[in-house]
Amino acid sequence: MVIETINDYLDALPEDRREAIESVRKAIQAGMPQGYVEEIRWGMLSWEIPLETYPDTYNAQPLSYVSLASQKKYMSLYLMGIYSDEGNRAWFENAAAERGAKLDVGKSCVRFKKLEDLPLDLVTEAVGRFTVDDYIQTYEKSRGIA
Q: Rounded to an integer, what distance in angstroms lies between the CA atom of residue 31 and that of residue 48?
């Protein structure tokens, strides 16, 4: 099956994963500022800044802000805004700890095996931290452009 749409992606997931991914997706959508577009990119759900809004990316692809994927052994939530800045990363990890969550974090992602491992209110809050303009500034700063 070729995954071309968000529904194709969700339909291809096993039932338990679909329920978890759909719940995290709803939390993301609840906090997502205007101007980001949800697409399928790199084999996962991705919320990005369209090239029409910001064409000057390093790889000529839309600037990815949040991605959500079902991997072989876990699910992954990529929060590029949070992980592109040490202060925001510290805020996120401290906020998770305050909620009693022990996150499995990578360089730019949070891995989780069960929905209960991920505080959805924190996901919504983290996603809402960056307007499109804020994220472009953070991106440019991290790339040494600004």
A: 14
Q: How far apart are CA 72 and CA 95, in angstroms?
A: 28
pTM across the whole model: 0.93
CATH, range 6-140? 3.90.1150.200
Report the SS3 class of residue 132.
helix
Q: How many CA atoms lie within 13 A of 17 on its CB side?
A: 17
Q: How does pLDDT run across 72-122, given as a tens digit for each residue?
A: 999 999 999 888 878 889 999 999 999 999 999 988 899 999 999 999 999
Helices 120-127 & 86-98 angle (0-180, nearest 10): 160
| Distance, first Cα to last Cα, the chain | 42
Spans of all domains in the chain: 6-140
Closest by CA to 81, choosing from 33, 127, 31, is 127
